[in-house]
Amino acid sequence: MTSPDSASTNYEDKCSNGNNLDQFNRDKFLKLMLADKKSKLSQLKVVLLNEIKQSGDEPRGEGVHIGEWNQTFHDRSGCGTNTNSYSAFVVTVTGGNANHTVVKYLVTIDDDDNAGKRTLKIRDIRPINLRNDN
């Protein structure tokens, strides 16, 4: 990790055609961010858990879930340069039999490879208010 919200590593293969951008290491980066109390993603999870507690609702399971990561941007220039973004919804889940599930944020990370140097970082965390039924 180069900061709470970014990481980089170097690969021997300078012309990998995207093979340096594996999901295993992307998932590892996300776990490290969630474990670091200074990361934006970890802090967001704490804020949302506090919102749940203050509302009087009970969290269901962990209370805050990060959904599946989907590729939302891709640009490849030759065999050694790949620029990618992945996005996921951050959701709160509360209640018992009558549960309440709400998408709260869209998180986007960049996962880039430039001639063997892979860089992962938070691009953006945006609030989403799809529906607010109380």
Total strand segments: 6
What's the helix count?
Answer: 2
Shape: elongated
Spans of at least 5 consecutive residues whose pLDDT stays below 50 are none
Structural classification = alpha+beta
**Secondary-structure element sequence?**
EHHEEEEE
Portion of residues in helices? 10-25%
On the 0-100 scale, what is the average pLDDT? 90
Please give the radius of gyration in angstroms.
17 Å
Largest sheet: 6 strands, antiparallel
Distance between the termini: 40 Å
Quote the beta fraction.
over 45%
**Quaternary state, please?**
single chain
Summarize the structure.
The chain is of the alpha+beta class.
Q: What are the salient characteristics of this protein?
A:
134 residues; alpha+beta; 6 strands
Per-chain topology:
Layout: E1 6-10, H1 23-35, H2 40-55, E2 59-66, E3 70-77, E4 81-94, E5 100-114, E6 117-127
Antiparallel strand pairs: 1-6, 2-4, 3-4, 4-5, 5-6
Task: Provide structural commentary.
By secondary structure, the protein is an alpha+beta fold. 22% of the residues lie in helices and 46% in strands. It contains two helices and six strands, in the order E-H-H-E-E-E-E-E. Strands 1, 2, 3, 4, 5 and 6 form a six-stranded antiparallel β-sheet that branches. Strand 5 and strand 6 form a beta hairpin. It is elongated, with a radius of gyration of 17 Å. The mean pLDDT is 90.
